[in-house]
Amino acid sequence: MLDLVAERVAVGQLTLDDADELVGAAARRGEISLPDAARAIERARAALQEGEMPVAAIWARLAAVAASHLADPLSTAHAFSLLGLAELGRASPEEADHSLDRAVRLFESAGYRGVDLANCYYGLAQLRRDRRQLDEAVDLATMASLIFEEHGLDEDVANCRYLLGQARYAQGRMAEATDVLNRAAHAFALSERNVEAARCYYVLAHVAIDQDQLDAAADLLKRAQITFGENGIVVYQAHGYFTLAQVRQNQGDLAEARELLSRAEALYSELGLTVDVHRCRYSLAQVYYSQGRVDEIPVLLAQAEAIFRHHHLRADAARCRYLKALLARDQGRLAEAAGLLAVAESVFLKEGYEAEAARCRELLLAESVAE
């Protein structure tokens, strides 16, 4: 029966809610057994391994409903873990969070400490990282890593270390970020996962930038760019150009910074990544500010801020306000500058960007603005 229901859902003849009712009723009547639920779990697992996220989600959901009605908590947990991972792969974070959290609670209640629990912890760590709930992300990635290590899954341990490195970098804990990212990069290189190693170098470059180690950052970015180019990872090529532009800007090489931003923007445009296109334009406005070409800045900032606000990217919009404040200060509009800085500082604090909030506060306290 589950095969027929899954097929009907896949072709749009049956909604998932209707499928849930059918499967639940069949399980209560004894028409679906635990072996049926187990087969559905394996179908979901196979689809997930093949990257067929919609198929995996259908089978995992049907398995979860069946196992739940058959009062098998552990099978229900396995089904929800696969459903959460499929939803994560389909970029459905709220649904993924709900399913993975439910799976974790069931696994922990049953005393299960296997790979599916580790996968849940890792998936939840990704979600927490993306929401900048960094302490939780670190805890979850650490728990996942310990279980993967117990099972001898070195590549999964390396994935956890990469995520830990991202979180530690975002927390400003640079020494820990450097250590864990270097360990992850070494493990990836040993297993010839060169793209993953290059991603580690990319984050390590950001760590180096924040520590004013600009030559080291440039070397890391160039090393990463070679791998991204060889493997056709266009989005990371664009990220690399964008970040190298920041390095060159900090080194005072504004002409090369503009050239690199142009390359990054062209790639982002090809990929249809509107937000990243406007991050390039915001960075170009920064370059123009450094060059004293202030007449070209307002239009770039207005366009970028509108896009950022449309996508609810509050920190990016606040960065536009910060640069507007610098322009207003330079032109003697001190009250306007103070207002922009106060708003930007508030946003940075709410979004967890304490260093940028402090920069606003310093400027607010400066005599040129405080008068």
> Would you identify the CATH architecture of the domain at 1-112?
Alpha Horseshoe
Structural class: mainly alpha
Provide the residue-averaged pLDDT: 94
Question: What's the CATH class label of the domain at 1-112?
Answer: Mainly Alpha
> Based on CA inertia axes, which overall geometry fits?
elongated
SSE topology string: HHHHHHHHHHHHHHHHHHHH
Please give a quick description of this structure.
With 371 residues, this protein is mainly α.
How would you describe what is shown here?
Helix 10 (174-190) packs antiparallel against helix 11. The longest helix is centred in the N-terminal third of the chain and has 18 residues, at 93-110. This protein has helices at 2-10, 16-28, 34-49, 53-69, 73-89, 93-110, 115-130, 134-150, 154-170, 174-190, 194-210, 214-230, 234-250, 254-271, 274-291, 297-310, 314-330, 334-351, 354-365, 367-370. The chain has a domain at 1-112: Serine Threonine Protein Phosphatase 5, Tetratricopeptide repeat. The chain is elongated. The chain has 371 residues and is mostly helical. The protein contains 20 helices and no strands.
